[in-house]
Specification:
alpha+beta; 33 strands; 6-stranded antiparallel sheet; 19 helices; elongated
Length: about 800
């Protein structure tokens, strides 16, 4: 099998037994792929010489151009028959039995072989002619794509110095009586002339990319009216362009040059594209909405890149070089999957993937080479898992997880960073809610609650751990999430009114006469329900008022506002006020403790009632100062043009981190509470007695003696609660929305590692890339918890060394 000139196109059947090649002389050579034995030589087009061929990846349809200006559509189909043993002559059956397994023998211009199931199968190439049209002058280059009603062809035809571009639309016509469909070319439509002779053409949807052999290129949108939208260079100055092919899906364009470099790019909206993303020397028309961005680059190996073959199943592409080297490149992550010398030093002029992507057919001038390979899992590399990747249509490299789609040209995205981020986000918000509540509850029941009340409260809290997480997730998704959405302003207001009312109740308690307060001591934890109810009622009243004052009457519309939206929601003061209020309260509390507390201690001669009034006044003044400080900071940040939207707050989604934080925080409270309470109870009583005997109050004893001594146990409680939050599945699966986005917006959803495994593992194909990546995600989750627990253990041991000396 020899070719005096490089073939125009190469193909192979789905079973990898039959190959074909179309030569520039017009001869169609059919050969056995395993041995290279020629089975048939045909001239299906008579004396006409094909000069150009366009064959799309994954399709048997092709467009052929000829020296006489003809353009034809043909179909390189394979005819499969299953003859019986009885229908074959005895000598043929004997030859078939002596042939190697699945090798087959030549028969009637095709290959006859026995399948692993014992059946006979006969493969034969069947060339199906299609419609034809004619242009003025020889056809120099062709591009084939999909149109509105049928195939779309662009041809470069005419003189070698200045060929003209023509758009050829193919319409489908249906016979009214028989229902049979036929294809017919419409009249050629001339396209704008270029400043160079186009030798390479490619269609990206309805966008034509025409390129010259010296690397110059032009992009022409074909609808609604063709025009030259972009002029640029595909290769560096002085480097020849050798190949130009669209990748599977006709979204990414690939090209190679005489240095062996393989580059790729796709269209981006002009307003979204980074400044340096365009091609070298790009000049865009004023009305151009897109630009061709260069996003992929695989460095060459010195020899010129002679042929490219995209796979019909994945983003894999085969590259053949002038020195006979064959490369398999996965375009998405720009990784070289395999490299081998396949041509014995001869240039690889033609390449074709087996349809099942388990082999390659490579043609040189000296013959055919069959290359078997297993790509395994080229979609995943260490960099694609944890570093940004520039996916098709994305304005910049990003961390993305998207494992499936309904589109055949889908580009899998297996970035684990969004899942790790979602896991950390869920853990953070649940710990922000659950950890302080559990620790303070443990301190209260251990140090301030009577033993009789504790015997009721502690088992009740521990009983919360028996609630199945699936029940909590169900309640979060179907009850809490809709409820919080309906009363969102009141919910946010309650985050401020709840601690404010509890603190106010504590200061009011000090105003009670001492005999009365001692008599009510045992029921103090029951009386706490009064400020709780008051705080919720106050939140219901103040929430809508704050919404009208701070957010122009619509909190959700304010959260969803973007540049150019209604001016009423443009101010960011309200959002900054809510975010800076906790920081303002902490700052005022620190200042009060730093400067006012020492002065208050000098007023010990005052009566208990007057000191209580003084403390109440200080609290109210501090609360007012915190509000004013937060408002001042909010105004200042807003004046600088800073906006919290897009950061900690943003567009409201019903199933969000706020709901998950509440519900999952509720789930981790019993674990943290139980361990923390046990750690506090383990502190020796002689330490408490010594502190109380020295004149310290119970609160001072708790804060300065008990808590530091029990710090190792409290830290262990937090770490166990953290591990529970990291590994939680059902709550985040049902209440988080399962959107693998990366933002800290408390009102948006997320996807965690555990929830992703639970959702996708049952549907993943066994041993597929998706399946294995999910197991890798489980390993990442294990490593996260292992590292956290190891660090926690080191810290715990350090705290324990301090406490053991006591």
């Amino acid at each position: 099998l020899r070719f005096p000139a490089p073939p125009l196109e190469v193909g192979v059947d789905e079973y990898g037994v039959l190959g074909w090649a179309l030569t520039p002389s017009g001869e169609l050579v059919v050969f056995q792929a395993s041995s290279g034995e020629v089975l048939a030589r045909k001239r299906p087009f008579g004396d006409a010489r094909p000069t150009a061929c366009a064959l799309r990846a994954g399709s048997a349809d092709a467009a052929l151009g000829f020296a006489d200006g003809a353009v034809r559509l043909v179909r390189f189909a394979f005819e499969t028959r299953y003859p019986t043993d009885e229908s074959l002559p005895a000598p043929l059956r004997a030859a078939l039995d002596q042939a190697p397994d699945e090798a087959g023998i030549p028969y009637e211009g095709g290959v006859l072989q026995r399948t692993p199931q014992g059946r006979l199968r006969h493969q034969r190439l069947k060339l199906e002619p299609g419609p034809e049209t004619r242009l003025s002058g020889p056809v120099r280059a062709l591009a084939l794509g999909d149109g509105d009603e049928g195939p779309l062809v662009v041809a470069s035809a005419g003189s070698a110095d200045a060929p003209a571009l023509s758009l050829l639309r193919v319409a489908r016509e249906e016979d009214f009586f028989t229902g049979e469909e036929t294809l017919a070319f419409a009249d050629p439509e001339p396209l704008p002339r270029l400043a160079f002779a186009a030798s390479h053409l490619a269609l990206l949807g309805r966008q034509l990319v025409a390129a010259a052999s010296d690397g110059r290129c032009a992009r022409l949108p074909l609808a609604p009216e063709p025009f030259v939208a972009e002029r640029a260079r595909l290769t560096p100055e002085g480097v020849a362009l050798t190949c130009l092919r669209p990748l599977l899906g006709d979204t990414t364009l690939l090209w190679g040059d005489a240095r062996g470099d393989l580059r790729g790019g796709f269209l981006l909206r002009r307003a979204e594209a980074p400044q340096d993303a365009g091609l070298p020397g790009a000049r865009l028309a004023e009305k151009a909405r897109f630009l061709l961005a260069r996003t992929k680059h695989v460095p060459g190996r010195g020899a010129a890149l002679r042929s490219l073959a995209p796979s019909a199943r994945s983003r894999l592409v085969a590259a053949g070089y002038a020195d006979g080297t064959l490369r398999l490149v996965y375009v998405t992550n720009e990784s070289v999957v395999a490299e081998a010398p396949a041509g014995e030093g001869q240039p690889l002029e033609g390449l074709a993937f087996y349809p099942k992507e388990d082999g390659l057919l490579a043609l040189t001038t000296g013959g055919a080479v069959r290359v078997a390979f297993e790509a395994h899992h080229p979609e995943v590399t260490l960099s694609s898992l944890f570093l940004p990747v520039w996916y098709e249509g994305y304005p910049e490299p990003s961390h993305t997880w998207q494992s499936s789609s309904g589109h055949t040209g889908f580009e899998p995205k297996f970035g684990l960073v969004p899942l790790v981020f979602g896991t950390l986000k869920a853990t953070l918000y649940s710990m922000l809610f659950g950890a302080p509540l559990a620790l303070l509850a443990a301190i209260f029941t251990s140090e301030f609650l009577t033993p009789r009340a504790k015997r009721v409260v502690k088992p009740t809290i521990e009983l919360m751990a028996s609630l199945p997480s699936v029940v909590l997730g169900f309640l979060a998704a179907l009850v809490f999430a809709p409820f919080v959405e309906d009363v969102l302003p009141a919910t946010i207001a309650s985050l401020a009114t709840l601690p404010a009312c509890l603190l106010l109740a504590a200061y009011l308690w000090q105003l009670l006469p001492q005999p009365l307060s001692l008599r009510l001591e045992g029921a103090r934890w029951l009386l706490t329900s009064i400020p709780l109810l008051c705080s919720f009622g106050l939140a219901v009243v103040l929430g809508p008022l704050a919404e009208d004052w701070l957010f122009a009457g619509d909190l959700k519309a304010w959260l969803a506002w973007q540049e150019g939206g209604p001016e009423a929601y443009a101010s960011a003061t309200g959002g900054w006020l809510l975010l800076t209020l906790p920081a303002g309260a902490v700052a005022v509390a620190w200042a009060s403790h730093r400067w006012l507390t020492p002065k208050v201690r000098t007023l010990g001669h005052l009566s208990r009632a007057r000191l209580a009034l003084l403390e109440l006044a200080r609290f109210l003044a501090g609360a007012l100062a915190a509000m004013l400080l937060a408002l001042l900071a909010a105004k200042l940040l807003d004046s600088f043009g800073l906006d919290p939207r897009g950061g900690p707050v943003g567009t409201y989604v019903q199933r969000n981190a706020l709901v998950v934080g509440f519900v999952m925080g509720f789930a981790i409270v019993p674990i943290i509470y139980t361990i923390a309470d046990d750690a506090l109870c383990a502190v020796p009583n002689h330490l408490r007695s010594a502190s109380l005997g020295a004149g310290a109050t119970r609160w001072q004893t708790t804060v300065r003696i008990v808590v530091p001594t029990a710090m190792s146990g409290l830290f262990s409680a937090l770490m166990i609660g953290l591990g529970r939050a990291v590994g939680e599945t059902m709550i985040v699966l049902m209440a988080a929305g399962n959107t693998p986005v990366m933002d800290w917006n408390v009102f948006s959803g997320f996807r965690t590692l555990s929830a992703n495994i639970a959702v996708e593992l049952p549907e993943a194909v066994r041993n597929s890339t998706h399946y294995r990546t999910l197991f890798l995600a489980a390993l990442v989750l294990f490593l996260m918890t292992f590292v956290l627990n190891t660090a926690a253990e080191l810290v715990r041991l350090r705290f324990r060394k301090r406490a053991v000396s006591l």
